[in-house]
Amino acid sequence: MSQTLLSSPLQGFTDYKFRNAFNHFFGGIDSFYSPYIRLNGKLVIKNSYKKDIQLDNNNELEVIPQIITNDVDEFLFVSKYVRELGYKELNWNLGCPYPMVTKRGMGSGLIADPEKINSILHKIHNESDILVSMKMRMGYDTPEEILETLPVLDKYPLKNIAIHARIGKQLYKGGTDLDSFQKCVDNTKHKLYYNGDITSVATFKKLQERFPSIDHWMIGRGLIADPFLPSMIKNDTTEYPKNRYDLFNEFHDRIFTEYDAALSGPTPIKMKMLGFWEYFSQSFSNPQKTFKKIKKAGNSKKYEIAVKEIIKEAKNG
Question: Whole domain around residue 184: which residue ranges?
Fold first, then answer.
C-alpha cells in the first residue's frame, strides 16, 4: 500500500513561501494544507489569505485551502471564493486547540456540538458543490466528543477526516491517544488520515504497524523540526543525505531572504525566524544551545553569523 504524506497547516509557519521552499529543497509531501482562512464575521477575505492560496504562488504544489468558522455564511462565502480560483476542495478546521479560537466555539471547541456541525454541513452540501474534508482533534475536553459527532459526519460525502490524536485542551502537551484514535477508525465509514507526533522514521513505522488501514499521514511540527523527514519516510531510510546541512542552509537562506523582504523592520523578521528555530533547533545535536544562540542574536547581522556558526558546528560534528 503506497503511503501519502500531507503537510498539516501551522498558522504562522506553513505559508506559500515556506511551502515552495520546502518542496524545492526537500520534497516528500504529496499535498500541503494552507493555514486556515478566518473571517471574523465580515464577509471579506484578507489580502494575506488571498496571497497564500493564489494559484501563481502555488503552481508547483498540490494545495488544499482551509477555513476555520462556525458560521455557514462564512463557509459558503469562502467556498465560492476558492471554487472561483479553481480549487475543488475546502478543508474545515475543527482541530485548532488555542483558547482564543475554542472559546468562540470554533476549531476543537466546536466538536462537542454535533447539531451545529450538522446544520452547517447540511447547508454547504445543499448550496455548494465544494468537496468538504475535515481536520479535527478528538474533542476539546474528552476524546469521546468525536464519537458523538462521527455519526453526523457519516451522513455527508466528505472526502476524508484527518484526526490529530489529541484533545484540544492538551494543546501539544502530553502524548497522543492512540486507543481513542482506534475507536475513531472503528466508528466511521469515512476515510481517516492520521495526524500527531510523526517525528521520525521509527515513530512513523510504529504507527503504520498499529494502524494498517491508514495510508494517509499528516505531518505538522515534525516536518518543520526535521524537513528531511517526509522524503526519508518515502524512501524508507534513516540515512540523511551527505549534504544535509548545506541543503538546510540553502533552504534557510531562501526563506530568511523572502520573509525579510516581506516583513518591515528588524523585530518582525527576528520573531518570525525565532519561531522557526524553536523547531529547527530540534534537528541539531544540542537543541537548547542552538536555540539560545539564535535568541541572543540582537540584529540581522548577528543572526546571520549565529546561523553560520550553527551550520559549521553541525558539519564538523
Answer: 4-234
DSSP, collapsed to helix, strand or coil, labels residue 133 as strand
User: Is 215 part of any domain?
Assistant: yes
58/170 same-domain check: yes
Summarised one tens digit per residue, pLDDT across range 172-206 is: 899 999 999 999 999 999 999 999 999 999 999 99
Outline where the chain has alpha helix (H). Answer: 16-25, 47-53, 72-85, 99-102, 114-127, 145-153, 178-186, 201-210, 221-225, 229-234, 244-262, 266-280, 287-296, 300-316
Asked if residue 156 and residue 105 are part of one domain, the reply reads yes
End-to-end C-alpha distance for the chain, whole angstroms: 38
The verdict on residue 184 lying in a domain is: yes
Question: Which residues, including other chains, have CB under 8 Å from residue 200's CB and lie 6 or more apart?
Answer: 222, 226, 229, 238
User: In this structure, are residues 108 and 95 in contact, taking their beta carbons and an 8 Å threshold?
Assistant: yes
- List pLDDT tens digits, range 110-149: 999 999 999 999 999 999 999 999 999 999 999 999 999 9
User: Model pTM?
Assistant: 0.96
